[in-house]
């Protein structure tokens, strides 16, 4: 059996970004500036570094990044007001709120406030709900990244059997919803699933979002399957050094799978690219 | 093998309604009137009869039914204004809009406007989206009815294998989402599914929402399975008379299944009961 084709998240993201650069230019030619308004409440050094990297990713495709920094003591009402102002501002077409918000702020309540058409992270439940109801919408970025990576292989999703390992609210359930929308036969498993190995072995498309290193071994992957690894696990390697691995035993599974996404360099970079794409899409839809 | 236990939708609905009558009394004792505000735009004789029956169902548990009738020529803006007024009115805790709306009104846009906390039919996508995100919410009534009927059997959903036949936006997908939330292993099938019979045979819980008479035959139902029939099909019987049947070959499957819901008298009456329960829940939550 030939080795699996690697689904290179960095290369795919670069292709997406090239296309976005062109779309941003087209908008600019019409006098439209593409901007992402991000709200950061408090936040440690890591959060600020993250925001800085996000600004850089935006800048690379011509998106302006406007960071709205609020005090770590900002109240629910103050954050609410900031969101409502951004919702009403016609110059703002894309809004995101950095998580986590300091306690005791109710983060869900804040996310629900973001105007559906400006919610480029897809955290307002109306956006994934629209997908359940079969409507066009801004899709949560990680789930969208998974779908794009599957589509990049050219394997037809409609009629294929897709197994989602893990049913988390952030990844597993939204991915299952998107795959249903794409007319796959979708199997959603969780920690209580019986005969999970048999189900995984039957998968044409296997998405793992369980957060368990080496959960997906070669013997549970069908020959030629598409394997997407959404796990991000920090482990200590044999050399005593910390590193990031996914849920898939990559070196073994690459001999069985037809296509496989690595960690790092897989879903991660594509998720960032999907945020940028949603941002451009929101600007195009509004203008 | 003993015959399956019938999941009697009318009897279950009656039990639900008894409990609701008590909850309505408790609210009234606190001076709170429970009301369902329904918007009917145009509508033929059938639509008015439907509304009248709904009023009767509400009245039976002590819920006031206020019908807002609008001209069949009402514009998008006029219907929007009616919804926004109801959203803002503190005396209104439950809102529903009768479908279909006359063309060219955009029904989805109207449904998205209904305040999430007052949306007792669960048609605002934010409500099913909240379920995807693992939050408490007002659940679409038919999907909720299916879950309640499964729960009525006492069969544990967590860890069981649930197969949803049909992935419609109205029933199949929302039911799959609810079953994921209940920690079942969920298999969503559609017309493109390969080896669908094998999947159905593996189901501890089989929900059919395909709209195909006699799709579910005895040979695809596991001994002892819970079978919920959401199909509503009008057929001409051997006697030349029209009648309503589900997707399940009831007379054969009842010898295989452990529990089975009939059509009529199954999901239908429970769906009405769930609308009433959502209405009471909305009044309790708001007050």
Structural class of chain A: alpha/beta
Succession of helices and strands of chain A: EHEHEHEHHHEHEHEEEEHEH
Outline the low-pLDDT stretches of chain A.
none
Number of strands of chain A: 11
Tally of domains of chain A: 2
The CATH class of the largest domain in chain A, by name, is Alpha Beta
Largest interface: which pair? A-B, 39 and 39 residues
How many distinct helices of chain A?
10
Multimeric status of the protein: homodimer
Radius of gyration of chain A, taken over Cα atoms and rounded to an integer in Å: 20 Å
**Corresponding CATH superfamily of the largest domain in chain A:** NAD(P)-binding Rossmann-like Domain
Strand content of chain A: 15-25%
Largest sheet of chain A: 6 strands, parallel
Helix percentage range of chain A: 40-55%
**Adjacency order of strands in the biggest sheet of chain A:** 1-11-8-7-5-6
The separation of the N and C termini of chain A measures 50 Å
Shape of chain A: globular
CATH names the topology of the largest domain in chain A as: Rossmann fold
* CATH-derived architecture of the largest domain in chain A: 3-Layer(aba) Sandwich
Mean pLDDT of chain A: 96
Description:
The structure is a homodimer of 287-residue chains. Chain A is α/β, with parallel strands linked by helices. Chain A folds into 2 domains: 31-117, Rossmann fold (3-Layer(aba) Sandwich); 139-267, 3-Layer(aba) Sandwich (Rossmann fold). The first copy, chain A, contains 10 helices and 11 strands. Chain A has helices spanning 9-29, 45-60, 76-88, 107-113, 125-132, 141-152, 172-181, 196-201, 250-253, 267-286, and strands at residues 5-6, 35-41, 64-70, 95-97, 161-165, 185-189, 205-208, 226-229, 233-236, 242-245, 259-260. A 6-stranded parallel β-sheet of chain A has the order 1-11-8-7-5-6. In chain A, strands 3-2-4 form a 3-stranded parallel β-sheet, sandwiched between helices. In chain A, helix 1 (9-29) runs parallel beside helix 10, helix 6 crosses helix 7 (172-181) and helix 6 (141-152) crosses helix 10. The radius of gyration of chain A is 20 Å and the shape is globular. Chain A binds chain B through residues 108, 112, 116, 124-130, 132-135, 137, 158-159, 161, 167, 169, 172-174, 176-177, 180-181, 183, 185-190, 192-194, 196, 199, and chain B through 108, 112, 116, 124-130, 132-135, 137, 158-159, 161, 167, 169, 172-174, 176-177, 180-181, 183, 185-190, 192-194, 196, 199.
